[in-house]
Amino acid sequence: MAFPTYKLYGPGSEIATKFAGTGHPKLKFLFTAKFIFRSNSPSVVGAEDLHAMDFDLRQASRPAPNIIYQDANFYNFRTKIATKVDFGQATIVMYDDITNKAHDIYKTYLETVSPIANQQVAAAGTLEDGGLGASSSVAPLENKYGILSSITTTHHYQSYAGNGSVIPKKTHYRYLNPKFVNMTLDELDMGLSEPNTITMNFIYDSVNIENESGGGGGSGGSESSGGFSEEDQARAAGTIPGFI
Predict the structure, then answer these.
(1) Environment class of residue 122 by beta-carbon count within 10 Å: exposed (0-12), middle (13-18) or buried (19+)?
(2) Bridge partners of 160?
(3) Nearest 5°: phi and psi at 211?
(4) How far apart are CA 94 and CA 101, in angstroms?
(5) Whole-prediction pTM value?
(6) Which domains can be identified in the chain, with CATH numbers?
(7) pLDDT digit string (tens) for 37-69?
């Protein structure tokens, strides 16, 4: 009777090698943010390139769409049909830096969407002049799609080419027509020595996701090449002192 033979090493044995090397998971810690205003733009709006990162970022959520289905019956065959995509909310948390770059995003948006937020203390007793009462705290918007054209969070990571060289990569999450639902400045506390943060929650009409690979060696047609500075590539390769 012939007994079957088994290979001790098969495709599954490569999982650990790929997990630690060419197929390793992305790391969460490196990303940038960019805000595109239609008008009244603050002096600093951020960037997609790592070497031009403007904001002191702490956290950013990624798209989490909820697909709504409806039951359908096709001649006794039951299935579900997608009727709507609810994109939900996204969140960006930034450190409130001493140059007020993140704070200016907060301030510009509030003053643009609400005319009453532009009034000085001296006008506290005359807010009703010109129709600026409590009931008119939201201004007519210049554009029906809102103040912001887009918010982009760009995730930076690296992969490896066949010759072992490091390839910097980006994934852009471009949120179209975002609208802030709430903007929260965290509290001040004399008993703590912690950095202040600004949390911005927003809804959006749609999201465009694009993968970008620098220096070639990407996974193919879904990734475009270019857009990476020499410094970006050096950082990804770990040749800049202090880069981890």
Answers:
(1) exposed
(2) 166
(3) -95, 140
(4) 10
(5) 0.75
(6) 26-117+132-237 (2.30.110)
(7) 988 888 889 988 888 778 889 999 999 999 999
